[in-house]
Amino acid sequence: MKHVIRKAVFPVAGFGTRFLPVTKSIPKEMLPIVDKPMIQYAVEEAVAAGIRELIFVTSANKNSIGDYFDSNVELEHLLKRQQKYDLLKMVQNILPENVSCVFVRQHAMLGLGHAILCARDVVGDEPFAILLVDDVIDNNKNPCLKQLVDVYEKEQGSVVAVQHLAEEELSKYGVVDLAGVLDHYARMVGVVEKPKAGNAPSHFGVVGRYVLTPKIFELLADMRPGAGGEIQLTDAIAQLLEDEAVFALEFEGKRYDCGSKLGYLEATIQYGLKHPEISKDFLKMLKALKL
Ligand code: G1P
């Protein structure tokens, strides 16, 4: 039976320790890239790929994510009274009307795999997407998740996004082993979470976009802690590909690792340079720095 990918899971429960102290009270996902919170970039990408139900796996101190995607009636009244209709439209259109949000709590920080398992009942028995918010991927013409969905529809099998990485980067990622040469996409024969130096099966690291069949939940439910003592999604995918075809897709687009300070700053500069309101002045400002 053919399935449409309608649901996406956003695991957003983490503490964001790499961004302390700001993440002491502000979720990492709400840090702005120019004037939109980081999470909105992933949500827009999901919606552009046809997702209609957003499932956020959250924890304590993450209420501002829910507030952001909800309406703010008082603010809307004020903007109406002040006749600031452009701003009114902006705050009313954070999400299209046909998109809904569900919030699930992850009560213990037991790893990415555990976070995804928390969404099991809401996803149910259908294939679904996962987006890791701190991987910001820029491709307006063909959003990264849409590229994965297209491969899913063609192959009717799970798909993960991969990127060619430098040797010294590989130990920070899930790294795939492939059945043949990767030409756009290829079938996976293995995947290892954070391999030790010299042990990576390829140079293709997993980045935060997945389309998975619901079989993954069964596997996650039986998963023991892996790398870093956490329940790893990668380990469940390594089992999934023993039973079903799983594909690695080398996506087109520019990825920013906004889980790191440098990646976050790079994204801020690049999106600033594209922002219709400030692009020209921002470029002038950067040039004046004469670095
Ligand atoms: C997670 C995944 C890893 C993946 C990475 C992509 O790791 O466990 O397989 O390569 O995201 O960003 P984390 O960055 O949470 O350590």
Outline the low-pLDDT stretches.
none
CATH hierarchy: architecture: Alpha-Beta Complex
CATH class group: Alpha Beta
**C-alpha Rg, in Å?**
19 Å
Bound heterogens, unique: 1-O-phosphono-alpha-D-glucopyranose
Structural class category = alpha/beta
CATH topology-level name: Spore Coat Polysaccharide Biosynthesis Protein SpsA, Chain A
Q: CATH superfamily membership, which one? A: Spore Coat Polysaccharide Biosynthesis Protein SpsA, Chain A
**What is the count of β-strands?**
13
> Main beta sheet, described?
9 strands, mixed
Topology, please?
Layout: E1 7-11, E2 32-33, E3 36-37, H1 38-48, E4 53-58, H2 63-69, H3 73-81, H4 85-92, E5 100-105, H5 112-117, H6 120-123, E6 128-131, E7 135-138, H7 144-155, E8 158-164, E9 174-178, E10 185-193, E11 204-212, H8 215-221, H9 233-243, E12 246-250, E13 254-257, H10 261-274, H11 279-288
Parallel strand pairs: 1-4, 1-6, 4-5, 8-12
Antiparallel strand pairs: 2-3, 6-11, 7-13, 8-11, 9-10, 10-12
Helix pairs in contact: 3-4, 8-9
